[in-house]
Amino acid sequence: MQITLETLRNLLRNTFGRNSFIASFVTSIQPSPQCSTASINQDGELQYNPSFVQQHVQSESDLFCLLVHELLHPMFGHFVYTHGKLENIAADSIINSCITQVFGDWSDNGSLFRMYYRKTGLQGILRPESDMNYSRYAEMYRNLYPETKTTISISTGEVIRSLKVLADESQQADVTLLGSHGNNSGNNSPIKADTLSRIADNLHEVVKKQCSQHAGSNNQLSRFLLEVLDKHRTLKKTLLEQFTTKQKLDKFKGLINQSHLTVSPIPITPSKRDLVLLAAEHTPFHFHNQMQRPRIVDKGLAIYLDVSGSVQEHLPKIVGILQSLRTNLTSIYLFSNQVVEVPFADLLKGHIETTYGTDFDCVAESILNRDFDKAIVITDGYASMCAHNLEQLQKRSVKTLTILFGESRVITDWDVLGDVVQLDEVIV
User: Fold this and answer.
1) Same domain membership, residue 197 and residue 96
2) Cα(20)–Cα(349) distance, rounded to whole angstroms?
3) Between β-strands 420-422 and 399-404, what pairing exists: parallel, antiparallel or unpaired?
4) Do 335 and 288 share a structural domain?
5) Which of 191, 248, 258, 418 makes a 20 to 30 Å CA pair with 173?
6) Total number of domains in the chain
7) Residue 184 and residue 285 in one domain
8) Which DSSP string do the residues of 28-81 spell out, in sequence order?
9) What is each CA distance from 102 to 47, 68, 115, 207, 324, in whole angstroms?
10) Same domain assignment for residues 221 and 327
11) What distances in angstroms separate CA 2 from CA 40, 124, 310, one per listed residue?
């Protein structure tokens, strides 16, 4: 099959929508013998090995498998803490399973994977319809490709741990993986976070639609993939900018108008002194005009993140969404029944301090003590605030944005101080 930019874009538009960002993201296609299979970089340049494509990519379904596999690599990247062969095999096994079952119609049930990998051994976990009944990988394979519509409990981390026990080095050497895996020359520039966010949002919309149309094991994989994609979506920047505060300095920038005087023979915006002289019928030789000059100042976000025991299962998703702020946010406030300010970089590394209980009084007192005029509270809503603290916040005219996650839909304490929204409503 000959791969052209027009062929690829038409395929992507037919599957992900006529106006899909993914279709426009791919900017060029280049054959490259140095590339083992295929890879795509931050500029949307797709490189492929001509021999690999000629031998294995025979249809649009195969091409779909190849491209979506490469797009999902950075989406799953946060699960892989090292870049060893087993870690890459584990990530690929999850990706191939998702493409085969969630995008079954478009991928022809993983046609490329069935053609490229053998049915047995370690290669067997990387494809559907493998012969694994008497294999050491049989149990793992049943989780990746369940025969019945049962609940799936599988993650990249679980596959990695299992492979470290089950796979030997000779089997690892026998596996040539699809995609770049960070070792293809010339085309392995990492995709930028904002671009990943737009790709994730495009995929999220399609997967969510697929999830509503199917049930059983396919639906379980869809939900798993949605959780992965959510970690690359970001909070709306325009919304965050409304809650920056000069009482906390991060690396956010804000514009303020600063007064200054200019001298001119024309009264543009005359000063009070000039107005007094004019009223006394004395025309000044020069007018002192009061002008407004825009100036960029540093501001920050006072974000309070609920880390109580009831929210532990949601934290990976939330931290993934917040990581888009890593270049702007220097610290964040974690709360359970006390508030702890931690470097934002520590949160992204998984360092969380919690007392497991929850109350909003500690947040209110922190806002009042630090004299914040604005704050963002991210919580599951299962806590309360005393009337005195709520009254003090209102008296100070504190403006808050409360972002709810989990099962909660109504919150009665913060709604009098500002908007209360669902997490899915404020991410892009």
Assistant:
1) yes
2) 33
3) parallel
4) no
5) 191
6) 3
7) no
8) EEEE-TTSSSEEE-TT-EEEE-HHHHHHH--SHHHHHHHHHHHHHHHHHGGG-S
9) 26, 12, 19, 7, 27
10) no
11) 18, 28, 53
Instruction: Tell me, yes or no, whether 47 and 81 share the same domain.
Output: yes
The CA distance from 383 to 361, in Å, is 9
Structure tokens at 373: 């005029």
Residue with tokens 């892989």: 80
Residue where a domain terminates, one of 263, 282, 298: 298
**By the 8 A CB rule, do 144 and 99 touch?**
no
Structural domain harbouring 335? 237-247+300-426
- The CA-atom distances, in angstroms, between 15 and each of 10, 106, 147, 201, 296 are 9, 7, 26, 15, 44
To the nearest 10°, the Cα dihedral for 190, 194, 196, 199? -140
Same domain, 200 and 61: yes
284 and 325 fall within a common domain: no
How does pLDDT run along the chain (428 residues), one tens digit per residue?
A: 788 889 888 999 988 888 888 888 888 898 988 888 888 888 888 889 999 999 999 999 999 999 999 888 888 764 544 567 888 888 899 899 999 988 989 999 999 999 999 999 899 999 999 998 888 888 888 888 887 655 555 667 778 888 888 887 777 878 888 876 654 444 445 677 778 878 888 888 888 887 766 555 566 778 778 877 877 777 777 788 888 888 888 877 654 455 656 776 766 666 677 777 767 777 776 766 666 665 566 788 999 999 987 777 778 778 878 877 877 889 999 999 999 999 988 887 778 877 778 889 999 999 999 999 999 999 988 888 999 999 999 999 999 999 998 776 666 689 999 989 888 788 76
Token pair for 399: 């403006």
- Same domain flag for 148 and 259: no
